[in-house]
Amino acid sequence: MVEFIFSLVLMVCLGAMLYVAVRALPRVEESGVEADAKNFIERWAHSEIPERIDAAFGNFLMKFLRRAKVVVLKIDNSIAKGLRKVQPQEHHANTNIDFKELSGQNMEDKEEGSSLKQ
């Protein structure tokens, strides 16, 4: 609990320091750099081109992932079909579980039937 309190105090202090630094940031003036003279990278970064590229990439990625999902599901289906061909047939026949046999009711019925026949 003591560690939590110390961590909390540390984070509050760091937050206060960051707040003071951000408040002082607008007072800092750029020296020797003209606002009108921007290089190619700065103009490109502030234009609409990066947003358009991001939207196009997001659209492409979504379509690609959907198609990849379909391909993976098709591969999964083909593997499942291959496994069904390799799997022994008696495994398919014993898929139904007889719950009466598991609970012992079926065994009691068989014992009663055999005692009646004698």
Describe the fold and architecture:
- With 118 residues, the chain is mostly helical.
- The chain has a domain at 60-93.
- The protein is 76% helix and 0% strand.
- The chain has six helices and no strands.
- The longest helix is centred in the middle third of the chain and has 38 residues, at 49-86.
- The radius of gyration is 37 Å and the shape is flat.
- 0% of the residues are buried.
- The mean pLDDT is 80.
Write the topology of this structure.
Elements: H1 2-24, H2 40-45, H3 49-86, H4 89-93, H5 99-103, H6 105-117
Describe the structure in brief.
By secondary structure, the protein is mainly alpha-helical.
- Report the sheet with the most strands, covering strand number, pairing sense and barrel closure: none
Query: Which stretches are low in confidence, meaning pLDDT under 50 for 5 or more residues running?
Result: none
Q: What is the average per-residue confidence, as pLDDT, rounded to a whole number?
A: 80
* Structural class based on helices, strands and sheet pairing: mainly alpha
Reading the helices and strands in chain order gives HHHHHH
- Net shape: flat
Beta percentage is under 5%
The total strand number stands at 0
Percent of residues in helices comes to over 70%
Cα Rg: 37 Å
Task: Spell out the key features of this protein.
single chain; about 120 residues; mainly alpha; about 75% helix; flat
